[in-house]
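Researcher: We're teaching a course module on how sequence relates to structure. For the next exercise, students receive a sequence and then see the predicted structure as tokens, so they can try to spot secondary structure elements on their own. Here is the exercise chain.
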Amino acid sequence: MKFNRLLVFLIAVAFILSVNFAFAVDENVTQAVSEVDDNVVELQDAPQNALADDSGDIISQDTSNNQEPVQTIKMGKVTKRYNGAIEYQATFYDASGNPLKNTEVYFEVDDSADYSAVTDSNGVALLTVFLKNGNHKIGAFCTDPVGINYDNIKVFDVLKGNKNINMYYEGGNTYKVRVFDDNGQPEKAGKKVMFSIGKKVVYRYTDKNGYAQIKIHSTPGIYEIGAKYQNFFVKNYLTVKQVIKPLTSFKDRAVKSKIKYKVKLLGKNNKNKVIKVKFNKKTYKAKTNKKGIAKFYLKTPKKVGVYKVVTSYKKTKITSIYSKYYA
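Model: And here is the predicted structure for the students to work with:
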């Protein structure tokens, strides 16, 4: 990794310089000690922050304004969360403490996988990376000036609890998510969440436990359903099944004054529901019994022909065909 090779190189250079310095000091140490022995100056009463000038007088040294070494890299935080990805921010400085502008810098994640980025006019560099949920170590470094810093972060889902839904029409199902803040804690009440079902968009707000939900009233079909909070989005598939099931076939074309037609309403809570049938320009109504079945007696048309039988429940309907070949 580029990061590890750079670190090893810097350590080797520092070691060589320290060894050369040690030899230089060793050659002159005997002479320096003998000279000091002949010219000892007692400074027992001198303060710790005092110096002596060439004449031997004590000069006070003010260290109250001493500054800490410049911090080359300031680790930031996770600024955004996407689908399976995070954006991490770090700020880089030069040796004088000024923002390191338009400079290539480097990141590494969990001691592997090097990434490069370029700082902006404020010295800020962004790392966008896909990470699994859990704890991770972020490293940042630059080469001019040489600097390195680390941070530990936790990656988690901002939206949880979402799942695919398979339901009957008007089954009373809800699509629910739980929203989490930047610290991984459930959001407070009143946070706005956007829900989408197909092309339809609605907004709901979190409760005190961070949950937001919508009740589903979609007609039979297959839809994409999702939720969005800030920059984080999750999606699932919603399947709404038809609830009207005809129990009568129109293959029996015997000429009778009335046609007995039975319909069953599928799903739960199907008792005492009003079913409508439109046939030969006339509308019939009936309620389902405890088994969800409604019965109709449709008046046979007098003329030969093909007729539609439209059965409906609320906003859903199905169409069957009745054919009369002879009077």
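Model: If you want an answer key for the exercise: The radius of gyration is 40 Å. The longest strand covers residues 134-143.
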